[in-house]
Amino acid sequence: MNEAARVLRLLALRGETVAVAESLTGGLVAAELTAAPGSSKGFRGSVTAYATPLKEQILGVDGTLLAERGAVDPEVALQMAAGVRVRLGADWGIATTGVAGPEPQDGQPVGTVYVAVAGPGGESAGAAGAGKVASLRLNGDRAEIRRESVRSVLELLSELLGDEHSENARAQDTEQNGGD
Fold first, then answer.
1. What's the whole-number mean pLDDT along residues 59-83?
2. Contact 96, 33 (CB under 8 A)
3. Phi-psi domain of 90 (left: phi exceeds 0; alpha: psi -120 through 50; beta: other)
4. Given CB 3.0 to 4.6 Å as the disulfide criterion, which of 19, 22, 61, 116 pairs with 81?
5. Beta bridge partners of residue 23, listed in sequence order
6. DSSP 3-state assignment of 149?
7. Residue 158 to residue 125: CA distance in whole angstroms
8. pLDDT for residue 162
């Protein structure tokens, strides 16, 4: 089972949904999720905010943060994930931002990528809810960096979803497959 199918299965087990905010991946995360059968049950939609001003205007990323640090920043990734989660009415938001190349951006070298997940977490968790950011330093050409960014953000969400319900998910898998 690929990572997108795994994420969608875990979301279905929980009765939850995901929305995607993408920059360097340009819609590839949404494409990967929607390629899986039954994706409409867990996938709410996506925003491809490729231009930096759209991250503020559409996703609600802090303009001062963008002005001071640029779009390739871990806090920007987390705010993108939190923003798409709220704006598209999903339980979970995931985001990608980074430099796929061929040139550096915002003083960051090619291969610098941040992927983030924001999810439900109660009042004390703040706007992002349960949030996590992964900092990546990827090698390869533009296509390889983008592909690895897609895989990494889906894996990050899968880990967070699986941490809480892995026993329950395994039990249901066993029941569905008739195994032991």
1. 97
2. no
3. beta
4. 116
5. none
6. helix
7. 20
8. 86
